[in-house]
Amino acid sequence: MAAGSSCAAFAVGALLPLLPYLLGASSVVWSVLVAGVGLAVTGAFVSRFTGRPAWLSGSRQLALGALAAGITFLVGHLVGSVS
């Protein structure tokens, strides 16, 4: 059960940044915006279980997601994957 839930959560999370491209967008801006909103909403939702303020959890999740994306970009740049 937990494995199936985890798989579904990862699939939905991975689909969010791709959704603008599937709908015809050609700019990365839309992908970044959709992913950012998804991260913030997810963080705010988690606050219902932690007792923290929604804005704090949403901001934290957004910051951690941005940090992860930045590190991923940096590693890609260092190994020559970024043009």
Report what the structure shows:
The protein is mostly helical. It has one domain. Helix content is 83%, strand content 0%. The protein is built from 3 helices and no strands. Helix 1 runs antiparallel to helix 2 and helix 2 (28-50) packs across helix 3 (54-78). The longest helix is centred in the last third of the chain and has 25 residues, at 54-78.
* Rg for CA atoms: 15 Å
The overall strand count is 0
Instruction: State the end-to-end CA separation.
Output: 41 Å
Question: Biggest sheet, open or closed, and with what strands and sense?
Answer: none
- Form type: globular
Order of helices and strands: HHH
Average the pLDDT over all residues and give the rounded result: 92
> Helicity, in percent?
over 70%
Indicate how many domains the architecture comprises. 1
Find the structural class using helix and strand composition.
mainly alpha
Strand content: under 5%
Unreliable spans are none
Oligomer: single chain
Number of helices: 3
